[in-house]
């Protein structure tokens, strides 16, 4: 039995689960390439950000890229403009960059968590089919016909778990990468605020209308 026959045997739920798998892997690949383009967090991150803030015209020379460069650029602009609350500037851009890092992870979580439920739905539909075979046979069970419904039920359960487990693992890895990057951004903002001798800590992250458009990451 080839793959197409296997999927046909499993019923429509199997095709939906295959779609889940393709969509989930596409999201994972997109996030992986995004992190790959950003590169690893450089050594001596805090010192690099301090240097970038001190010399904003030479940010590229510090080796900062992505969200770290955006934070440095925003805070340097805030210092130059005489921002009264530099913490708000740093926290605002930090929030924005973390949101960009998390893009697509919510959808990935929905796919991973609903795949087993779809598998269960396929199981229920398969068992309904099996019992209908018994009913239509008037109690005289045709083993071959009955096996078709049971096969569909078991296949969708297994496929749902097969799709969900890898997606959940990959989601966990991506969330960990985002968390580590966000922690690094917190350290950078805190270090600059301490060096400048003021402002609130990065734990205070209120929305700020001003400075919202500062320093989009390139």
TrEMBL record:
One of its GO terms (biological process) is protein import. Residues 198-207 have a biased composition (Basic and acidic residues). Its main location: membrane. Keywords: Cell membrane, Membrane, Protein transport, Transmembrane, Transmembrane helix, Transport. It is found in: Cell membrane; Membrane. The keyword Transmembrane helix applies. The chain crosses the membrane at residues 12-33, 104-128, 148-171. InterPro entries: ExbB/TolQ_transport, MotA_ExbB_proton_chnl. Residues 198-218 are annotated as: Disordered. GO terms for cellular component: plasma membrane. The keyword Phosphoprotein does not apply. Residues 82-183 form the MotA/TolQ/ExbB proton channel domain. Belongs to the exbB/tolQ family. This is Biopolymer transport protein ExbB.
């Amino acid at each position: 039995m080839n793959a197409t026959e296997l999927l046909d045997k499993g019923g429509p739920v199997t095709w939906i689960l295959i779609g889940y798998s393709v969509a989930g892997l596409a999201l994972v690949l997109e996030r992986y390439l995004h992190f790959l383009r950003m590169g690893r967090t450089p050594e001596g991150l805090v010192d690099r950000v301090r240097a970038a803030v001190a010399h904003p015209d030479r940010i590229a020379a510090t080796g900062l890229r992505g969200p770290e460069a955006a934070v440095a650029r925003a805070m340097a602009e805030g210092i130059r403009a005489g921002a009264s609350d530099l913490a708000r500037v740093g926290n605002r851009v930090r929030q924005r960059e973390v949101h960009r890092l998390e893009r697509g992870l919510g959808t990935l979580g929905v796919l991973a968590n609903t795949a087993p439920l779809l598998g269960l739905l396929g199981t229920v539909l398969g068992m309904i089919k099996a019992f209908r075979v018994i009913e239509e046979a008037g109690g005289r069970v045709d083993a071959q016909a009955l096996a078709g419904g049971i096969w569909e039920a078991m296949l969708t359960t297994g496929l749902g778990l097969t799709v969900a487990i890898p997606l959940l693992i990959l989601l966990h890895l991506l969330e960990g990468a985002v968390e580590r990057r966000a922690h690094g951004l917190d350290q950078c903002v805190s270090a600059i605020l301490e060096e400048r001798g003021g402002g609130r800590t990065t734990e205070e992250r209120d929305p700020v209308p001003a400075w919202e458009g500062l320093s989009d990451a390139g």
